[in-house]
Amino acid sequence: MDFNLSEEQLMLKDGAERYVQQEYGFEARTRIAAGQEGFSREHWRAYAELGWLGLTMPEDVGGIGCSFVETAIVMEALGRGMVLEPVVQTALLCATIIERGDAPRQRETLLPAVIDGKLLLSLADSEAGSRYKLGCHARTHALKTASGYLIGGAKTLVIAGASADQLLVTARVEGASQGVGVFLVDRRAAGVTCRSYRLLDGSRAADVDLHNVELSEDALIVGPERALEVLTQATELASLASVAESLGMMEAVMAMTSAYLKGRSQFGQPIGKFQALQHRMAEMFVATQEARSMLYCGIAHLNGPAAERSRVISAAKAVAARANRFVCAQGIQLHGGMGLTEEYPVGHYFRKMTMMEKMFGDIDFHLDRVAAGGQTPITA
Fold first, then answer.
1. pLDDT score of 178
2. Strand ranges, E, within the chain
3. Which CATH architecture has domain 7-115?
4. CATH number for the 227-371 domain, one of 1.20.140.10, 3.90.660.10, 3.40.50.300, 3.40.50.150?
5. Which of 39, 44, 48 is nearest to 112 (CA)?
6. pLDDT number for residue 376
7. d(Cα 291, Cα 305) in Å, to the nearest integer?
8. What phi-psi label fits residue 377: left (phi over 0), alpha (psi between -120 and 50 degrees) or beta?
9. Is the pTM value of this prediction over 0.85?
């Protein structure tokens, strides 16, 4: 695998990093987090104009058809800014489910709207008590009717659920041998109720109740025969994207901490000259590079055998989560009391890291999955 970026990839990297630096500063992010939706529609439209929402989507639906490397480049830049927009949720997780699903008409209609920034999607999978199970359907069921389906149940922790235009809901298909299916549900449809709340990093999620929601025949995006397979593939891509996002966060914390150590003086010299603090920075650097290596390893295995791909992506997620926790914690420690203030960004990186560590499965979950050879169903 060639680890050197092409000229076009270097331009993408430079453009994404410059956008975050100029348009998504810490003060701007604070204002966005305080808003009603917990993200910016203006930035979402900008992502669409820049082509970031369609990087991996095929050209026949208006995408660019890039490899996952380009997605990783953008996600690393977005991680540096702790962006609040649900890019992974809509443009990668949900878009991949639709792109690889069983509904070609919906694919042709929904994906161009996502790529253009006109449609916000969110996956409603998790249920109370399900922990990290994928394809949850214990509390949500879909009954086949003469005109389509009648769906009812409850979902939890739906990222940006109250702002989404459409929800992809996993539900037990009554009478189907394989059980779970993925359905497209209008968030504003009769019988759909969302209770929104703020997450630790300032973004928002929602609990969704569905009471006898009527769906058309073509609302079934992925049937019971392939639902778990497609959900697993999409969630693995989202997990790897979160690794790239974590990497961007670690790089930002290291840069911030290094600048602070060089600027803060004690005993007549910058504290960055103290050997003990240099050792800590070196350990942070090593942890970050380990995470980067695992990201590259995950990308290299994306087209390999399913079990090996799953095992490597879980390993990457576990290593990156552990490294991110170490780097962010050390960043706070090296800043001293200032690192805990609301007005300084390093503590917000720790909050973001804490939430991301639990998304798509925590460290223990992915380590167990690695030990099982990648066979344990991944979280959603």
1. 59
2. 121-124, 141-144, 148-159, 166-173, 180-186, 192-198, 204-216, 220-222, 265-266, 269-270
3. Orthogonal Bundle (1.10)
4. 1.20.140.10
5. 48
6. 59
7. 22
8. beta
9. yes
